[in-house]
Structure formats: C-alpha cells, structure tokens
C-alpha cells in the first residue's frame, strides 16, 4: 500500500495520476485534510483517508496498513517542521517501511532560507531511524509562469536573481519521478535524488522566450532583494512570504537552484518538458 499526503494538492494529484499508470488503484491511499476535495480521487478507485498535518492523531489512524508513504512537504512555511514530525512519528508507530520525502534541491548546501525546514525534516528522519528516500525537488517552473500575466501587463518581469541559472521542471515531471521511485523494485532507503529539469535558464532568457511566444517585448528588471520583496508585498503578497520569495531569487543568483544531473529524465526515461513548451501552454 502506497499513501500520499496532501493528495488533493497540485503535486499530490499528479503523483496519484502517475501511480495509477504503474499500479492498481487498490494499492493507493490518498491522505487529505478535506475529504470533499478528494471525491474526484475516489472516482478513480483510490481509497481516501482523512489526515491533517496539524492533527497527529489523524495520521496514526490513516497510516494503518501502509507500506510506503510519500510525505509531500506541508505548504505552511514556518510550521513545517512540527507538522512533518507529526507524520513521521505516526509512520514509525504504524510500521511504515519507507518514507519518500519531498525536500529541496541540494538542501544540505542550499543558500535559500527555504531549505532550513527541509534540512530539519531530513535530520529528524535520520534521528527517528525510519527508512527513507529523499526527493530533493528543484524549483517548479510554474513558480515563474504565474508571473507572465503581470509581466505582459507591465512590460517587465521583476526579480533579484541576476544571471543565476535555474534548472526548474514542471510539477508533472516531479510527480512522475516520485511515482517511479515509489514503485521501483530496487530498495530505495538511503537514496537521495537531486531532481531538476534538463534545461537551465536565467530570468533574462525566460523573458526572451516569453517575448517570442507572446509577441510582446518583455524585459527582465533585476532589483535588490529588499526592493523586490517590497514590490511583491505591494502586489498583495503577505510580507513574510514576499521576503521568502525574494530570498529564493537571491539564492538563484548564488547557484542554489542550478543542477545538471538530469535525474528526473533518468528516472522517467524521457526529457523533462521544455521551458518554451511550458510558456507556450501557459500563454
């Protein structure tokens, strides 16, 4: 039995989609906080169980009979460590044989502040002694695609990444890689997968593709981190989240989201979706 936390989230749903191509729906358990949102998963024959990151008792019940668990990192930055501990403790108690955890690309050496909670979770997995495999996900290309509309409206794409290279991939690619790892016959405990897209680009290069595909000239406007954070906050993002995104862009300038391992395509057997393809589809 394979269980997936955050099963109704954007990544979780895609993982289940790919798992269904590799194993029977009878082998898949979708763990969700809101059962109403999970009704579409039930239509595929997947068992749905209620589990809330902030309510550890729900996981103790939900993980009964589970062999492998995909722990998709919580979206609640600042609360992740405790929430992840709840899940890991419950998995240990339930006798789960393997946890696959979605961490951050090169988390142990990353300049991104976002890495802190991931490193703490990786450390806790070791301390608890539960067999685990790390799926260190790079940036989702969608993180930048959502900025295309305002960039087109304003004629400029803002950031503070300078000429840093980004080796992002679509959520679909990360989801397929996760499904592969969860269904491999070879033992996975102790493995670390640095997952990223086959293609690397700067934000200037991204803007060139947006310009070509949209027919409208879009320039990359590089700012200082504080200035970029202030601009994001002015656009309606909460202050702490705006600061975290700006810090991540600065991390890009330091090589934090660059990787040439091509691990996703090695796992899936095909190239990751190209940046141009994803921009075109988004437009």
TrEMBL record:
A Pfam family per the record: NmrA
The NmrA-like domain, residue ranges: 2-243
Gene3D superfamilies: NAD(P)-binding Rossmann-like Domain, UDP-galactose 4-epimerase, domain 1
Range of residues in the leader sequence: none
Domain of life: Bacteria
InterPro entries tied to this protein: NAD(P)-bd_dom_sf, NmrA-like, NmrA-type_oxidoreductase
Entry protein name: Putative nucleoside-diphosphate-sugar epimerase
PANTHER family registered for this protein in UniProt: NMRA-LIKE DOMAIN-CONTAINING PROTEIN, QUINONE OXIDOREDUCTASE 2
């Amino acid at each position: 039995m394979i269980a997936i936390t955050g099963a109704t989230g954007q990544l979780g749903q895609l993982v289940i989609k790919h798992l269904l191509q590799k194993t029977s729906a009878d082998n898949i358990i979708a763990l969700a906080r809101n059962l109403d949102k999970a009704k579409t998963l039930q239509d595929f024959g997947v068992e749905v169980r209620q589990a809330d990151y902030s309510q550890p008792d729900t996981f103790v019940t939900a993980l009964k009979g589970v062999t492998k668990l995909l722990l998709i990192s919580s979206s609640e930055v600042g609360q992740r460590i405790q929430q992840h501990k709840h899940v890991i403790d419950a998995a240990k108690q339930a006798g789960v044989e393997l946890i696959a955890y979605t961490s951050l690309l090169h988390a142990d050496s990353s300049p991104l502040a976002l890495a802190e909670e991931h490193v703490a979770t990786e450390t806790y997995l070791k301390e608890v002694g539960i067999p685990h495999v790390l799926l260190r996900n790079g940036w989702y290309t969608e993180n930048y695609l959502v900025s295309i509309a305002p960039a087109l409206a304003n004629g400029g794409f803002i950031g503070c990444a300078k000429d840093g290279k980004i080796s992002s991939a679509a959520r679909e690619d990360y989801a397929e890689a996760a499904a592969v790892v969860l269904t491999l016959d070879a033992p996975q405990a102790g493995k670390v997968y640095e997952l990223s897209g086959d293609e690397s680009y700067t934000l200037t290069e991204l803007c060139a593709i947006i310009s070509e595909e949209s027919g409208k000239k879009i320039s990359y406007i590089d700012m200082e981190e504080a200035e970029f954070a202030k601009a994001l906050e002015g656009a309606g993002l909460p202050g702490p989240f705006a600061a975290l995104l700006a810090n991540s862009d600065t991390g890009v300038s330091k090589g934090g989201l660059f990787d040439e391992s091509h691990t996703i395509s090695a796992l899936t057997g095909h190239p990751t979706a190209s940046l141009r393809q994803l921009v075109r589809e988004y437009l």
